[in-house]
Amino acid sequence: MRFSQYHGPTQAHGWNGHMAKNTTPGTRKTPANTLTRGHKKKARTRQQLLDAALRIYARAGVGDLALNTLADEAGVSNGTVYNYFRSREQVLEAVGLELAVQLSEQILTVSEAVDSGAERLSIAVRTFMNKARTDPDWTRALITVVRYAEGMRSALATYLRADLQAGRRQGDFHYAHEEMAMSMVISATLGAMNLLVEDGEVEHADRIAAEMVLQALGVPAEEAKRIAGLPLPGEAG
């Protein structure tokens, strides 16, 4: 799939969050409308640069990124790039957050009616895994930037924390340290995604990964298998 298919909202939100409401454009003849058009143009250009950065990361990795390379890939001038990003690190941070928002939007959409923290976490892991199976280029970009973008790691931790805490309150999760539990879930999921990308298809990979993550969080083996085997929201039973 093309990266442009995954344009996420500009407002960050988590697996248990809510999207910000869109503002209503002003009327055609007001000064506010001119400002809105300017903001929209800036947003489109920034998205164009983010998409170009995603393609570079997926194709060549972080090491090959330079701001002039980004300008060439996006089809804009070097000066345009510097209007938005002053360094490669700023681009990494922005792309990392963009990827986190895109994934969290999908997970929020499919799991918003689920109350169980363990089930929500299983849905999240399986959604990540299915994304890796269907879009390896996108996944390579995600795996590349998450190692470097502190903002993305923080965003993913924020999205995950509420589900871990819910699972613990509900008696499903038993872990000694919350931050380590979050790191374990993220690392295990990304590692499993990388396995799919590098080594090819693994039958029922999404369910296997979710089952193993749930067990690592203290869910008994049979219950973890049951939860991981539940149909995803929208799937037939």
Q: What do these coordinates show?
A:
The chain has 237 residues and is mainly α. It is built from 10 helices and no strands. It is elongated and about 55 Å long. The protein starts with 30 loop residues before the first helix and ends in a 9-residue tail after the last helix. Mean pLDDT is 81; it is low at 1-31.
Brief characterization of the structure:
By secondary structure, the chain is mostly helical.
The chain-level mean pLDDT equals 81
The helix-strand sequence is HHHHHHHHHH
Can you tell me the number of structural domains?
2
Briefly note the structural class of the backbone.
mainly alpha
Uncertain segments of ≥5 residues (pLDDT<50)? 1-31
> What helical percentage do the residues reach?
55-70%
Radius of gyration: 19 Å
CATH superfamily of the largest domain: Tetracycline Repressor, domain 2
Distance linking N and C termini: 27 Å
CATH architecture of the largest domain: Orthogonal Bundle
The proportion of residues in beta strands is under 5%
CATH names the topology of the largest domain as Tetracycline Repressor, domain 2
